[in-house]
Specification:
Order of helices and strands: HHHHHHHHHHHHHHHHHEE
Helix content: 55-70%
Strand order of the largest sheet: 1-2
Structural class: mainly alpha
Strand content: under 5%
Radius of gyration: 26 Å
Oligomer: single chain
Largest sheet: 2 strands, antiparallel
Number of domains: 2
Length: 390
């Protein structure tokens, strides 16, 4: 019982620290979603070359899309004529950071890590675009045939921004954020502060292990934040945590499969190589020039600290948003489908006998035990055997 209490305390503490910043980030991302139009994105990325790669990166860094949300947009701009390099740059830079993750990173890891994430997203986007362009140099760039991926309708109103910020975004990241928080709570609760040193996970060895975990794992830029904080708590260097912040959101199985389909196998290898080069170089430079104490000193989050009232309220609001997103996205279609099957079983508009559970209604307006044809019937239209007719 004590172990469970410690785990829940750590997880709740992280959630309460993250929630206020994340809600603020959602609001900013919602405004960006109506100001930055995807049709404009397509127009800017149509020409090959370094300029298109840089533009793709500049557009991708602030764009509020998660690791899987970026996939259909990247596929769409590729289908509209964007070069392989520009598409790779967009795929690399967009999920690594955004308004929501920048604010949340500042809240949990401090301003240095927040700004370095933005800088690395730009560097990684340009590098990924150049690597992919280099390995495909001299080849005819045939754009993939248009498929089901399309650009979504442009958002123009504040109401659209609110829906995007507090319904769409929580739905997109609910699973990833839950995984990140639950794993981070386990790391913080059960791994001692000297775990990394005692396990020999320092320097290059730590980078390798973190990369092997991060590359296949689906974790959004926000979901990676509590895990990075928990890693630092467990004795990993700030550089190793930064490797996870870079490699986690930029890579996952879905991204790799999409790149293989639209850009080819060589582009996938070049893309992953750019991620590793950027993450490891940044991690090494951070560990070399900035000690662990400096980063920890900027982190407002104290492991095991009891959440304040404001953080607790924000955490409760965030949980409601995530729960609503999950129920709306996964359970509402199931209920709708079940209701349609039930209505179909009533035999409304057919000669077959209807089920009493949905064709009998005991109301004064229709008479005791009156027989009617479903909810849409304005008056009973059935014979004594409860056969429904048009």
């Amino acid at each position: 019982m004590e172990i469970l209490t410690k785990y829940l305390t750590e997880t709740w503490s992280m959630l309460a620290t993250l929630a206020p910043w994340l809600l603020l980030g959602f609001a900013i991302a919602g405004l960006i979603s109506i100001l930055l139009k995807r049709s404009t994105v397509v127009r800017f990325l149509g020409k090959p070359g370094l300029g298109s790669i840089v533009r793709a990166t500049i557009v991708g860094v602030p764009m509020p899309l998660c690791s899987c949300g970026v996939i259909p947009v990247a596929a769409a701009i590729r289908e509209k004529g964007a070069g392989k390099g520009a598409t790779a740059a967009f795929l690399a830079s967009t999920p690594e950071t955004g308004a929501d993750s920048f604010v949340a990173t500042w809240g949990m890891l401090g301003p240095f890590m927040a700004f370095i994430r933005v800088a690395l997203a730009f560097v990684n986007g340009v590098l990924a675009g150049l690597f992919v362009s280099l390995v495909n140099r001299g080849e005819k760039d045939e754009v993939a045939a248009a498929g089901s991926s399309v650009l979504t309708e442009e958002r123009k109103s504040i109401a659209d921004a609110v829906r995007y910020a507090f319904i769409r975004m929580p739905g997109d990241m609910a699973r990833s954020l839950a995984v990140g928080l639950l794993l981070a709570g386990a790391v913080a609760a059960f791994l001692p502060a000297d775990f990394a040193q005692s396990a020999g996970l320092s320097g290059l060895a730590a980078y390798v292990v973190v990369t092997l975990v991060a590359v296949p794992l689906y974790v959004c830029s926000v979901g990676s934040i509590p895990l990075a904080a928990a890693m630092i708590h467990a004795g990993f260097s700030p550089g190793a945590a930064l490797v996870f912040l870079v490699a986690g959101p930029a890579t996952n199985v879905a991204t790799i499969v999409t790149m293989k389909n639209y850009l080819g196998g060589k582009s996938v290898v070049a893309y992953l190589a750019s991620i590793v080069v950027t993450a490891w170089t940044a991690g090494f430079l951070v560990d070399l020039g900035l000690g662990r104490a400096a980063v920890v000193g900027q982190m407002p989050h104290a492991m095991g600290q009891e959440a304040g009232l404001f953080g607790g309220i924000a955490a409760a609001v965030l949980l409601v948003l995530l729960l609503h997103a999950v129920l709306t996205r996964h359970f509402k279609p199931l209920l709708k489908s079940a209701r349609s099957r039930q209505e179909a079983s009533c035999g409304c508009g057919s000669e077959r006998a209807a089920e009493p559970s949905c064709c009998h209604e005991n109301t004064p307006a229709r008479g005791e035990g009156a027989c009617h044809c479903g909810e849409k019937a304005s008056a009973p239209k059935a014979d004594g055997g409860c056969h429904c007719h048009e």
